[in-house]
Write a structure and sequence with these properties.
single chain; 292 residues; alpha/beta; eight-stranded parallel barrel; 11 helices; 45% helix; binds flavin-adenine dinucleotide; oxidoreductase; EC 1.5.1.54; Methylenetetrahydrofolate reductase; NAD; flavoprotein
Length: 292
């Protein structure tokens, strides 16, 4: 079991941490508190999300720039193509380049009505993440990550379409895919098999979402088309008014997920922190990460 003999694989293990740009001073304090705890664990990068319609453009740029200058850790800026022309998106990419940001997580984004609504590209905009990756490549030599969906993107009619789309994004110049949250490892492992069978060799990094609040995370999952298995739901049943046991359960569930993946040979992990450090600190420790 690799999880018992981490020292044999420690040099191969990579983690990255995803944050969102804080909206006010209180949230910003929490953001930095979490960054200051997680950055010393030596992540490959810390990424900062982008409001689909560009509403966080300035904040995302400020946070990625400051993460880099304050901690020395590499920062990745998310970027979407919703509601913006190619020229506007290119200007954001140029802004990242000028600020010394060399990593981008390139996404199509969702319409303001949500993931279920059909995506209508800006008349002069990029129409998909694959086109965005091509556009970014024209501007600079960025390290690009794209999104992947172990349960299929809700708008992909079938697996073939979904995997073909992933292939287009990687062929356009992305180096890796980071997955949407998933709670049943079988979905991820089957997906990786499908992807490999299609000749894709790029890393498919599992996106791990600790369930710090079952109510909130099951809502997020439903909105992005990730299923919440009954057996996970049952573990949290009745814990709504017992935050301590809820937190212990959240750690146990996420730890089980990470250890299982590790034992399946997974060596790269992306954690959705929601700007909290506690669960992810513990999970990264399970992967042998220590400050310094
Ligand atoms: P795409 O890869 O473009 O695919 C979307 C759908 O369109 C797929 O079903 C695909 O098959 C289909 N499609 C693509 N090209 C074509 C074509 N030419 N013709 C027909 N169909 C096509 N959202 C944000 O707003 N901000 C973020 O910061 C953010 N970060 C994320 C981070 C991760 C790790 C993940 C997994 C998702 C993130 N998202 C974010 C959500 C993402 O924007 C949505 O999941 C969105 O619905 C799809 O984006 P995509 O990049 O996967 O799109």
């Amino acid at each position: 079991r690799p999880s018992r003999h981490l020292s044999d694989i420690e040099s191969k293990l990579q983690v990255s941490f995803e944050f969102f740009p804080p909206k006010n001073d209180v949230m910003e304090e929490k953001f930095w508190d979490s960054i200051d705890k997680l950055a010393p664990l030596g992540p490959r990068f810390v990424s900062v999300t982008y409001g689909a319609g560009g509403g966080t453009r300035e904040r995302t740029l400020r946070m990625v720039s400051e993460v880099k200058s304050r901690t020395g850790v590499d920062a990745a800026a998310h970027l979407t193509c919703v509601g913006a022309s190619r020229a506007e998106v290119d200007a954001v990419v140029q802004g990242y380049k000028d600020a010394g940001i060399s990593r981008i997580v390139a996404l199509r984004g969702d319409p303001p009505e949500g993931v279920g609504a059909p995506f209508v590209a800006h008349p002069e905009g990029y129409r998909s993440a694959a086109e965005l990756v091509e556009g970014i490549r024209r501007i600079g030599d960025f390290d690009i990550s794209v999104a992947a969906y172990p349960e299929k993107h809700p708008q992909s009619p079938d697996w073939q379409t979904d995997i073909d789309n992933l292939k287009r994004k990687l062929d356009a110049g992305a180096s890796r895919a980071i997955t949407q949250m998933f709670f049943d490892n079988t979905d991820y492992l089957r997906y990786v098999e499908r992807v490999r069978a299609a000749g894709i060799t790029a890393p498919i990094v599992p996106g791990i979402q600790p369930i710090h609040s079952f109510k909130q995370i099951s809502g997020f999952a439903a909105r992005c088309g990730a299923s919440m298995p009954d057996w996970v739901a049952k573990r949290f049943e009745g814990l709504e008014d017992d935050p301590e046991t809820h937190a212990l359960m959240a750690s146990a569930v996420a730890a089980e997920q990470v250890i299982e993946l590790l034992d399946e040979g997974v060596t790269e992990f992306h954690f959705f922190t929601l700007n909290r450090s506690n669960f992810v600190l513990a999970l990264a420790r399970l992967l042998g990460r220590r400050p310094g």
